[in-house]
Amino acid sequence: MNYLIVNALVMTVDRERRIIRDGAVATSGDRITDIGKTEELKRRYPDHTLVDARDHIVMPGLINAHVHLTQALIKGCADDVELMDFLQYRVWKLMGSYTPSEAAASARLCILEMLKSGTTTFAETLLAGHYGLDGITDGVVDSGIRGILAKSVMDLPSYATRDNIMDPGMIEDGDECLERARRWKREREGEGGGRVKIWLGPRPVGSISRDMLEKVSSLAGEEDMGIAIHFCEVQEDVRLIRERYGMEPGEFMESVGIFTPRTLLAHGIWLSPDDMERIGRKKATVVHCPGSNAKLASGICPVPELLERGVNVALGTDASTCENSCDMFGAMKLAALIHKARTLSPTTVPAETVIEMATINGARALGMEGEIGSLEIGKKADLICIRTDTARTAPNTNPVSAVVYSATGSDVDHVMVDGKWIVRNGSVLSMDEEGILEEARTAIAAVLKRTGVNNDPRWPVS
User: CA-to-CA distance for 10 and 53, rounded, in angstroms?
Assistant: First the structure.
C-alpha cells in the first residue's frame, strides 16, 4: 500500500535534524519514499492514499531499548519495597510460577501498551525458558511491532552479593540456556518480515560465572547475536566484581568480551570514568531507565558524563513492576528532568538530546540505524502521529518541547510499522484489546492465588 501523510509537522531526526511545517511523508510498501512540503508531495504522488495529519507531529517510532515483556502482568505487585524483597518475595516468586500461557498474556499486554503509546521497536532483555519462547514470539509477529528478544543466560542462583536467593522456578542451566538461544534464533529469527531478532540476555554478574559470560560472548560472535545485560545497576554489582575478580566492572566486562557495538548495558548507574571510557571505546550502548532507577532507589545514570565521552545512550522504561508503565513519553520527560536537578543546570540533557535517545540512538544501539530511528528516504516506514490539539499539547509552538515535556502516550493517534498502520485513532488494529485485558485479569488472579502473594494495599480495604 502507498500512503501520503500530509498537513503534518514532520520531525525527521535526520542528519540535519530537520523539522518541516506543513510537511508530508510518502511511503511505498515498507519504506519511506519521500519527505517534503505537503503541496509538493501531493503533486508528485497523486495516486497515493492520503492521510490527513493536520494538528499532528509526525516523527520516528519510539525505540524502547530495555523492557521486560513478562512483567506487565504483575505491575503494581511489587511497589514501595526494598530491592531484595522486590526480587525475592515478589517478582521472582510470581514469575517463577508462570505457565507459558500466562507469560504470553503478559507479553501481549506489554506490546499492546507499547504500540498504543508510540513504541514501534523494543528490546527485551531476559526471557526464561519456562515462559514458552514460541508463544512470546508469536505475540510479536502477530502484533506488527518490531522486537529484539533476548534469551536469559545464567548458571548461578544468586543476585549481586546475595547467594542462592533466586526462586527455584527461575533457575536455569547455563549450557541449556545457550543451546536454547541458538535453536530459537535459527528457528524464529526473521519472522514477521524481519521484525523478530533473537539476542542473548546474560543475567547480572551475581547470577552468571565468568566462564558462562565468555561462552555468551563466543556464541554471540558465532551466531551474529547482540547482547543485552544489566550492568552496574546497584552498588553491590561493583563490589562483587572487585571482590570476586579483582577488577573494575568495565575492565572485567571487556576481558570477557561482553562490550561490543551491539551490546545494551541497561542502567549503568555506578560507572566510574574508566568504565565509561571502555564502553565508549568498544561502542557499546548504555540504556538509561530513569523511572525504574528512581522507584527502586538505585541511583541516577551519569548521562551527561557519558554523552561528554561520546557514549551512545538510549532510553528504556524497564519493567512494569519498577516503572509501572511502558510509556516512553514518561521516560523521556523524566530523563530530561532528573539530570537538571542532579547537576543544578537547566541546560543539561535538553529535550532534543532526549528525543535522540528515544529514536536514532536506540536504533544505533540495535545496529539498525540504517533502517529505523529517523524519517529518511529509503528507511523503514516506522512512524507515529502525535496529536497537538489536546489540552496537554496545545498550542504547539515548539514541537520538541511538546513531545518531551507535554505529551503522553495517550496523545499518540496513529502508529505505522513497516509501512502498515498498526494503530489508527488510538485503536490497535492488529490486536484484540478487550480480549488481551480480560486475559491479563484472569492470568494475574491465577498467579496470585497459586503463589499466595498478598497484593492488597496497606490501607484497609472493606
Answer: 10
* pLDDT at residue 83, rounded to an integer: 87
| CB 54 within 8 Å of CB 413 | no
Quick one: CA torsion of 152, 158, 164, 166, rounded to 10 degrees?
-50
pLDDT score for 160: 82
Q: Would you call 204 helix, strand, or coil by DSSP?
A: coil
Q: Report the CATH fold assignment for 62-365.
A: TIM Barrel (3.20.20)
The pTM of the full predicted model, rounded to 2 decimals, is 0.98
pLDDT score for 187:
98
Q: Where in the chain is the domain with CATH 2.30.40.10?
A: 2-60+385-428
Angle (CA) 161 167 168, round 5°: 120
Task: State the sign of the Cα–Cα–Cα–Cα dihedral 40, 46, 47, 50.
Answer: positive
The residue to which cell 547470577 is assigned: 207
Determine the Cα–Cα distance for residues 327 and 123; give it in Å rounded to an integer.
14
The runs of H, that is alpha helices, within 309-413 are 328-343, 351-358, 360-365, 399-401
Read off the amino acid at residue 195. Answer: R
List b or e across 114-128, with b for residues whose CB sees 16 or more CB atoms inside 10 angstroms.
Answer: bbbbbbbbbbbbbbb
Q: For residue range 30-62, what is the model confidence (pLDDT) as tens digits? A: 999 999 999 999 999 999 999 999 999 999 999
DSSP string computed for 287-303: EE-HHHHHHTT-----H
d(CA 326, CA 118): 10
Low-confidence stretches of the chain (pLDDT < 70) are none
Give the pairing type, strands 146-153 and 49-52: unpaired
CA distance 121 to 124: 10
| β-strand partners of 197 | 148
The whole-number pLDDT of residue 23 equals 98
| Domain covering 2-60+385-428 in this structure, CATH number | 2.30.40.10
For residue 422, what is its C-alpha cell?
498498526
Lookup: cell for 344: 543544578
pLDDT in tens, 190-224: 999 999 999 999 999 999 999 999 999 999 999 99
pLDDT of residue 345: 98
CATH 3.20.20.140 domain range(s) in the chain:
62-365
Cα–Cα distance list, 152 to 63, 72, 272 (Å):
21, 17, 26
